[in-house]
Amino acid sequence: MQKEMTERGILEVVFDILDHAEKESFEGHYEDDDHHHRGAVVQTEIMYKGLHSYNQLQVYLKVLTENDLLSFDSATRKFKITQKGHRFVQLYNKMNDLVKEGQEQQI
Q: Which of 3, 47, 66, 79 is the most buried (most CB within 10 A)?
């Protein structure tokens, strides 16, 4: 039981990374006036905000970019969520809502 409470599952980690990237694209967090850079997030920011180790993050970023959930701009060295990544976040949120509804009905 303790293990379940302390370790995040793969889908939760993927969601956290994509959700952070998605929020950055809507908030325009970066101070750049160049819109090309807005909504992009650097690797260290993902690592610190998501509490990921460097090695763990490398694996996730590789999988997410290979599966077109994130894109990487080698010139700016920033990651950006893709349309497919946005869709994953939407579906994950819907799934969580359904689980919460089911749990509330059981109470």
A: 79
Cα distances (Å, whole numbers) of residue 16 to 46, 88, 92, 101, 102:
9, 11, 10, 21, 23
Q: What is the CATH classification number for the domain harbouring 66?
A: 1.10.10.10
- 74 domain residue, yes or no: yes
What are 75-105's pLDDT values in tens digits?
Answer: 888 889 999 999 999 999 999 898 888 777 7
Instruction: Examine residue 82 and state whether it is found in any structural domain, yes or no.
Output: yes
> What 3-state class would DSSP assign to 70?
strand
2: in domain: no
Q: Is residue 83 part of a domain?
A: yes
Render pLDDT for 38-48 as a digit per residue (tens, 0 to 9).
Answer: 456 777 777 66
Domains identified in the chain, total number: 1
Angle at 54 between CA 80 and CA 43, to 5 degrees: 20
pTM (two decimals): 0.71
